[in-house]
Here is the input.
Amino acid sequence: MMMKMLAQGGVPIVMDGQREADEDNPNGYFEIELSKKLKDGEIRWVYEAQGKAVKVISYLLEYLPGDLTYDIIFMEREIHEVLASQKKMLARRGEVSSISDEEMEAQFRDHLKAVKYSIVVF
Amino acid sequence: MSRHSDIFRLLNIQGADAANAISSVLMKHEAFSGPYLCLGPDLVIGYAQNYRASAETGLGKAPAASLEVNTDHWGADHCINSDLVPGVLFANRDVANIPDVSFRDIPFLMINKHMDQSHLKPPSEQTRRGQENIEERLKGLGYL
Here is the structure.
């Protein structure tokens, strides 16, 4: 939704349209597949994306090149809603999670705390 | 006279030291945005180092001389180019021994103690097991 709002507001979006719309995201995914490879060192595309908006999940933020400056819109949603949504998505994709909701919630909370701190400090 | 020629003239004002007195001039739409843009000044002046709007100007007066030597205490900068002074730190003690003051120095300035940041690690190194579970989850969702 945020990416769609930015696009409607005239912000150029970096997306490749490779991930097609589905039941979970009927309006499509405003993503670029290369963002999934940030952890593997695929960062060249980020330099070409300067001045544009790109969707990067919190897990991958720390792998963005450190020599660029970013304006970050950090989207946060109530953790139980996130987990409920994820369960539905996993079920539709035929995936099974071996991790309990409680454990996942605790780990997501720790992760978010660390990511927020790293955005400020690093 | 056009706005652009005004800007050109302002940027070419030189002091007795032959240095430019003004290093940036922005039109209001370049300096500001938002619903109150129309209330902004036509031009936003950014003075160069060693120059400032005079105290009299700040009080609404218009001295005859365009440039004059400031013989008063330089206790503040008026309208200096924000690129030259991107932020201001107010402190009630001398910070001359702290080069490149950062917000990270605030604990030291406040309580005279340095913050040990050696334990700080990126998220991937803080909660290893949790990271693995999250990674597995994100892969299952198609985000990795």
Summary: Helices of chain A lie at 2-8, 44-48, 79-92, 101-121.
